[in-house]
Amino acid sequence: MANFYSDNDDLKFYVDHYIDWPELVDLTELHFNAKDAPKDWKEAVGGYRDVLELVGQFVADEVAPRARALDAEGMHLGKDGAVQGGPAHETIFAALKEMGVYGLCVPRELGGMNFPTMVYFLVNELFARGDVSTMTHFAFHTGTAAILTHYSLHEGSAKLNEVGAPISTRFDAAIQEIMAGNAWGSMDLTEPGAGSDLAQIRTRARLDANGVWRVTGNKIFITSGHGKYHLVLAKTEDQESLEALSLFVVPTAAAGADRLKGYVDRVEEKIGHHGSATCSVQFEDAEAMLIGAPGEGFKLMLLLMNNARIGVGFEGIGLSEAAVRMARDYAASRRTMGKTIDSHELIADYLDEMETTVQGLRALAVEGAIAEEMGTRLEYLHKQGGADKNGADTVRRIRRLKRRARLVTPLIKFASAEFAVWIARMNMQIHGGYGYVRDYDAERLLRDALVLPIYEGTSQIQALMALKDHLGAAVKSPQRFLQKLAAAKLEAVSSRDKLERTYWTMRSQCYSALQHILLRTARDKWSTAISAPLPRFLDSFLKEWDPRRDFSYGLLHAEHLARMLADVEIAGALLAQARRFGERREIALRFMERAEPRVHYNWDLVVHTGERVLGKVRRAADAARASATPTGGPDAVTTH
Q1: What is the mean pLDDT of residues 128-150?
Q2: Residue 358 phi/psi, 5° resolution?
Q3: N or C: which end of the chain has fewer CB within 10 A?
Q4: Concatenated DSSP letters for 172-188?
Q5: pTM higher than 0.90 for the full model?
Q6: Average pLDDT, the chain
């Protein structure tokens, strides 16, 4: 069978040509001052390629052929309280344990491989192409070991050597156990009634008489929640706010042990991802270790969530890659009307758009992953006093990278998840009736894809984040926003290169949609404020803003805007590649040919629709308020 890394020329392009390895390796290796560091960046990248080749072969030979078995066997809660997978799951993870890849991103001084997070993301794509449930479980081994190291560095509990590398952390025992393949972790956020709105979390943490933190509560929909090390978000203050949340490591004992204080009480029956356990976890006065300080929980969890969302982006890309190849292979073998169906115009168009979309998604995901990692590593070295000699320039660059990562991360998750469902759906359609039966894998890929727009923050949450960040930037600096809008419009008509003109046309329409939302929001707020008494008019218009009421037009169109932004950012990433690498121009042309009409369509929706739905929502809200207000004045009494 093919190697899932070496048979993917688009993926190899980033490793061989695009990623700025010299700087990234230099930062990862702390300027090559460590005793066991590679001699230069080329030697380090050679090691990265070896691992990508190894994983690519392993996934092709061992994971992909078992994907159907993983789907059929599932994960189950036994009578002894242990969660178990079938033979396929056990075989794969026993082999991964022997391979010793769980320390991929753990510093070398702690026994890890000291690879960049970028390599971890690429490895995740390879696993996802073979089977997404295997990828998610692998990710919670490797990712937990890495994030515990990062948290120890953040809180200052890690011991560093003379070059700034951690030689011990507060979580060494857990990190070593995970790297050995004997344990893994999970991210425990969601609760009944508290999914996207984390301020509604009810799980509580308290200090006992001996100064030990103890956590009590129920977490649901926890991926790989049958692991030993749980990163649990719990309230340490009795209030409904993000500032009341703190983050804990809660180790649970083996199933059936007398000292068990945290346990799985249910494994969800899902339509897909059958090889990944999604658990309900109960904590009953479970002993816990506070990470950082009380009240820092949401901020600390964001460090993990941002990487997780980029990881889901690569997961969607891997699944989409599998769906495209499956569709292409079937279309090349299926004959109708005297020719294979890949020669029929409709199918050829589908295949072209599916392949182009995957290439575009990968471009944005790689750019976002680089920005996230470079910003984090530069910030760490700067705090250690070793980033570079010009501190002010470094601080500005860190801010640019972090701002860039913040802007594109929700778009990566949003676009990759939504397009993965569409690509899996088109793969099924190309298979026709065979796609709907279990003799073929098209239906499995579609079932597996459907969760991507839901977990690690729904597509709607990602769209709202994108709306908030872009509107916030425009409101903070309206003059700069208008300058960007004018510049984009000018470039759209004056650029000599058709590719440049197409990109700037898309970009200017995106700015125009933002401008329309801002003007509409201001107009609505003005209408509300002008009805207030004159002395309160300015305060009402300038200060008294209700995000849920005053930004309703933007909230309504958040997904339309997110679709525009994702297409524009992908087009920008591909355009930047085309400027440096002539062979990438054709991909940029293909993508913009598809994306420009989508951007215009979504612009049309933002500018010309929404009044009817908003009116319906307002009338319903007014009716609800009226029914909640007792009649007969303030002293009226109602009886039931």
Answers
A1: 95
A2: -60, -40
A3: C
A4: HHHHHHHHTTS--EEEE
A5: yes
A6: 91
